[in-house]
Design brief:
This protein is mainly beta and about 280 residues long. About 5% of the residues lie in helices and about 40% in strands. The protein has 2 helices and 18 strands. The strands form 3 sheets. Strands 2, 4, 5, 7, 12, 13, 14 and 16 form an 8-stranded antiparallel sheet that branches. Strands 3-6-15-8-9-10-11-18 form an 8-stranded antiparallel sheet. The chain is globular and about 50 Å long. About 40% of the residues are buried.
Length: about 280
């Protein structure tokens, strides 16, 4: 588990919120958004499988909207030849100027590793991609992927190990998601035009259906639209990385990061984004 320290409390203004913490049940907590019977809930509501075939992918979303929280999802990815497929777990608000916090899992040909793609959108603008390999085979067992979003930072974690942090640098002119409530989403879909080796490797439909398994979704978060602001005192609200957590991110990024927009000077000829010139931690 990542190590954290307590930082000053930031109030959540102009929103009515209520605290929410649950181990989750897919029957009651989510709605299937597309794919019909390709999305199947089992195990008394603790497991949800999403499948992709030539006709359609599938997906679901949380019934609640949240403004800040910690969101954990167990995921087992498509085994074998998953080239061209993308499985997702992310948070997003609505509209053209939406905020979004992404985990995307880009499939690959048999024997080749998955690419874990992360991105952050603020006011409709993304272009903050970081990509990683994983230090295990994500198709063999359930692993836990975490989005921790508070007023101080966004932390991505894999099995409790932080892999990325995005600090709130609004005081320096860097946009940060602070005011738009988000739903949790998950999906599997066909992206053979870009997902695997830039689209050079296409989806093998003879291997369909492609199935990803989601399990034990947990939202420890503030629900937008509650009757009062009862979220103060939640531990995740004040979590930032301490020295151990920073060292874990350094280890992951040294050994498993394969792309960082903050290093891509050719992509930004007018200069790297402002946050790239500020301290990471």
């Amino acid at each position: 588990m990542a190590a954290f320290v307590r930082a000053p409390i930031f109030s959540i203004a102009f929103m009515l919120l209520s605290a929410f913490s649950t181990a989750g049940n897919f029957f009651s907590d989510v709605t299937i958004t597309f794919g019909d019977k390709r999305a199947r809930i089992s195990d008394n509501g603790h497991t949800l499988s999403l499948s992709l075939d030539r006709a359609s992918g599938s997906g679901f979303m949380s019934n609640n909207q949240y403004l800040y929280g910690r969101f954990d999802m167990g995921i087992k990815l498509v085994p074998g030849n998953s080239a061209g497929t993308v499985a997702t777990f992310y948070m997003s608000s609505q509209g053209a100027n939406h905020d979004e916090i992404d985990f995307e899992f880009l499939g690959n040909a048999s024997g080749q590793p998955y690419t874990l793609h992360t991105n952050i959108y603020t006011n409709g603008a993304g272009n903050r991609e970081q990509q990683f390999r994983l230090w295990f085979d994500p198709t063999q067992a359930i692993h836990t992927y975490t989005i921790l979003w508070n007023s101080l930072n966004i932390i991505y974690m894999v099995d409790g190990t932080p892999i990325r942090v995005f600090k709130n640098y609004m005081s320096n002119g860097v946009p940060f998601p602070t005011s738009q409530p988000m739903n949790m989403y998950a999906s599997i879909w066909d992206a053979e035009d870009w997902a695997t080796q830039g689209g050079r490797v296409k989806t093998d439909w003879n291997a369909a259906p492609f199935t990803a398994t989601y399990q034990d979704y947990t939202a420890n978060a503030c629900i937008a639209g509650g009757s009062s602001n009862s979220c103060n005192g939640q531990a995740w609200q004040h979590q930032v990385l301490d020295a151990k957590g920073r060292n874990q991110i350094r280890w992951v990024q040294k050994n498993y990061m394969i792309y960082n927009y903050c290093n891509d000077v050719n992509r930004f000829p007018q200069g790297l984004p402002k946050e790239c010139r500020l301290p990471t931690f």
